[in-house]
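Dear colleagues,

As part of the handover before I leave the project, I'm documenting each prediction I ran so the next person doesn't have to rerun anything. This entry is a single chain, and its sequence is reproduced below.
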Amino acid sequence: MDRATSRLVFFSLIAAALAARAVHLQVLNKEFLNQQADTRHLRRERISAHRGTITDRNGEPLAISTPVDSVWANPKELAPAVDEVPRLARTLGLDPQLLMRRITRSMDKEFLYLKRHLSPEQAAEVLALELPGINVQREYRRYYPASEVAGHVVGFTNIDDEGQEGLELAFNHWLAGESGAKRVLKDRLGRSIENVASIRPPHHGKDLRTSIDLRLQYLAYRTLKSAIRQHNARSGSIVVLDVHTGEVLAMVNQPTYNPNDRSQFAAER
């Protein structure tokens, strides 16, 4: 057998082997490989539901939900890029050493919050780093337009959007939404690239309309604050009722607090 014939036979055998392997992968072993691909790239993802809006009797908002993004990581997937953690920490505004310790201590977990309630613009900066295992989850944060004027009446929620005080706590069952779920396709960096199926749609919370008149609430707030200063008092309260119906039109206390500022959540306020 001459050299040309030997080469032809050799390459023919290679081609036949490749063809056989292709048939084995794409026909005989197709179902198994599809399952493996789904295991690696299909994920169940939560769809956050926002709380209902709280308004005064005229429809003026007292509490609304605004969209925010929370950054979380799969430490196992992030492990190959652990050298990039300091850059990630700087983008998140966190201490690099503390973040590194949190991640290395959580290598047995698949979900670890890195920072909650970022603006969508800040979350986009984190995703732009293109680090494996870094994901963003849409959530909602409560905002109180009337600030400290209606703080005691409306109350506030915790970081997980559950009512803790005031109307937020008393009507939590009414205001709270129920999260949904969907199945998504993710790329090798863990980013969602396609919604595959809806598992359960979210149910948003129901709105709550109160008897409070925000105009009277502001008037009562200013009056009480002025009286506290004039008489050098330690505390005070005003409740304004409709004498015909018994409805509460305004309710204020001093000292008060701003429910948008969690640093003011102290018992004496």
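The beta strands are 42-47, 54-55, 61-73, 112-118, 134-143, 180-186, 192-200, 208-209, 236-241, 248-254. The mean pLDDT is 85.

All the best with the project,
I.
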